[in-house]
Amino acid sequence: MPDTTRTPLPRQVADAYVDDLIALDPITGTFLGVRECSNALPDLSPAGAQALADLARATLDRLTEAERAPGGDSDVERRCARLLRERLTAELAVHDADEHLRAVSNLHSPAHSVRQVFTVTPADSEEDWAAVAERLRAVPTAFEGYRASLALGLERKLHGGPRATETFIGQLAEWSGEDGGTAWFEQFAASGPASLRAELDSAAAAATAAVAALRDWMREEYAPAVAGATDTVGRERYARWSRYFNGTDLDLDEAYAYGWSEYHRILGEMRAEAEKVLPGASSPWEALKHLDEHGEHIEGVDEVQRWLQSVMDEAIDALDGTHFELAAPVRKVESRIAPPGSAAAPYYTPPSEDFSRPGCTWLPTMGETRFPVYDLVSTWYHEGVPGHHLQLAQWVHVREDLSRYQASVGMVSANAEGWALYAERLMDELGFLTDAERRLGYLDAQMMRAARVIVDIGMHLELEIPEHSPFHPGERWTPELAQEFFGMHSGRPADFVESELTRYLSMPGQAIGYKLGERAWLLGRENARKAHGDAFDAKAWHMAALSQGSLGLDDLVDELSKL
Q1: H or E stretch at 335
Q2: pLDDT of residue 2
Q3: What is the number of other CB atoms lying within 10 angstroms of the CB of residue 558?
């Protein structure tokens, strides 16, 4: 019989936390592949948020005991304990500041999580669809809990920004079919079996009514209450969110200066590449506009989905055995089209823990049917292979050597986004971007990440634009200036730029993690290369790095340097 009197070790505490978290948050359970979660949604009310905070505090208490237990200071236990403590402490700082009472975004809100979870809920059998119907019936209660949280925020004068509010209302209108289109939940339920047609239609109608009710409340009550408020968050709130997304207490002024240094470096490279695309172009973005019309492109939504799949399949075949050693389940990844009403940015969803649901990349088409290739290749190296998919699927593959927590819910955004941006650069280093169109697209994506550091920190902290800037030197950043700057330095369309700025305003500190995370990955690799000299094995280093689970930027460079 097991010794139940022995103090658990940190990895056991971490995995017990995941079990308890899933009980409170079935959305997390579904993303992990726990089918028993398929029929429920979390409590999105203030009471639900308090329950999550109570769980975090109790887990931190248990972790302190576990670290003192025999074996609790081994390398594998120490690494897990460090991540768990840092993550829960950062999450509690956000909770204790009542940030959950002002969670309005065009990308990252409880309402978005509710809708997105249906896209990964099992739907292979009649039993699966019966659970879907039950989950659909839970949408009204979940949305009412979310509304109660926002209402309490208004009461305490804690609210989301006007810009994010306006955008979110527009998304809710689209989800509800307000303009005559098919409501999203009803369209989703239409794929279910005929045997459950009446039940699914009734449940989907109730979910749609809940979307419409939230839309109306946001439009009639919330929006007027936040009109005229600032969209930016200031240094104190920004530092709190930066810790949450990056796993470190950044020197924000140094990070801002780094963003500018990368801006100037990348601009020089872009000008050289643009000359190859369109000799005499006045700027790299004139060359990109030329490519929008005259460059290589894919026609049709189905066609671009298949083409993106081929990009990832070809990358796997080229990299496996040469620069990575990929297990069979990790080799499978699927390209999908994002549901209507999504934000403009592509995204990735990891595989379930048993790989029965593969990792998936998602392309929001934004109503377009013509897709320039220069804008997609590097992005799919980022979202798919060797980017998010190779890292997050590898975590799942080695979860028994880590802990369930390290392989899933303990993810630090800047670690994952930094790896994905590093992956884009790696493909350039390996010679996959020799074509001038595709390389200019890669550099445009790099410039976007440098511009994110500049405008995200700059506008939230209202910093001064430096004298060496070609754009409004000496002025203070505002959201309006940030959108103008971002639009001038991006080959992406205006609706994408607008969506991105709304994202930065409602997710402060997240967008900077791409470039700062990439810097950490590059520094860790360079340190390891110096330590090993001629014996440095890039393939072995990549696989060791991808198999260590998540770390905050505080710890990432240190651990990568030791590999």
Answers
A1: strand 333-337
A2: 46
A3: 12
CA dihedral (550, 554, 557, 562) positive or negative:
negative
**539: β partners:** none
Which tokens sit at 190? 């239409």
pLDDT of residue 375: 87
Q: Are 146 and 44 within 8 A, CB to CB?
A: yes
Pairing of β 359-363 and β 333-337: parallel
Position 122: which residue type? P
Length of the chain: 563
**Angle at Cα 25 formed by Cα 19 and Cα 28, nearest 5°?**
80
pLDDT at 5: 61
Here the tokens at position 410 are 């303990």
Output helix, strand, coil percentages for the chain, rounded to the nearest 5. 65, 5, 30
- Cα–Cα distance between 117 and 139 in angstroms, integer? 11
Strand order in the sheet with 347-349: 333-337, 359-363, 347-349
Rounded average pLDDT per 10-residue block, the chain, 563 residues: 70 97 98 96 98 98 95 89 96 98 95 96 96 98 98 97 97 94 95 97 98 98 96 97 97 98 97 97 95 95 98 98 97 95 86 94 94 94 98 95 93 97 98 94 96 98 96 97 93 87 96 98 98 97 96 92 95
Give the number of other Cβ atoms within 10 Å of residue 54's Cβ: 11
**Cα 432 from Cα 423, distance rounded (Å):** 11
For residue 256, what pLDDT is reported? 98
**Both tokens assigned to 157:** 């004068």
What is the Cα–Cα distance from 510 to 500, expressed in whole angstroms? 12
Under a CB-based contact definition with an 8 Å cutoff, are residues 198 and 217 in contact? Answer: no
Whether 534 contacts 526, CB under 8 Å: no
Cβ–Cβ < 8 Å for 552, 248 = yes
Helix ranges, 365-463 (H): 377-383, 388-397, 413-429, 436-461
Q: How many CA atoms lie within 13 A of 107 on its CB side?
A: 21
Helix and strand totals (H; E) in the chain = 23, 5
SS3 label, residue 433: coil
Mapped onto helix, strand or coil, the DSSP state of residue 349 is strand
In angstroms, rounded to a whole number, what is the distance separating the alpha carbons of residues 4 and 264?
A: 60
> Under 8 Å CB-to-CB from 406, ≥6 apart: which residues?
14, 79, 80, 83, 395, 399, 549, 550
Amino acid in the structure at residue 138:
A
Return the pLDDT at 75: 87
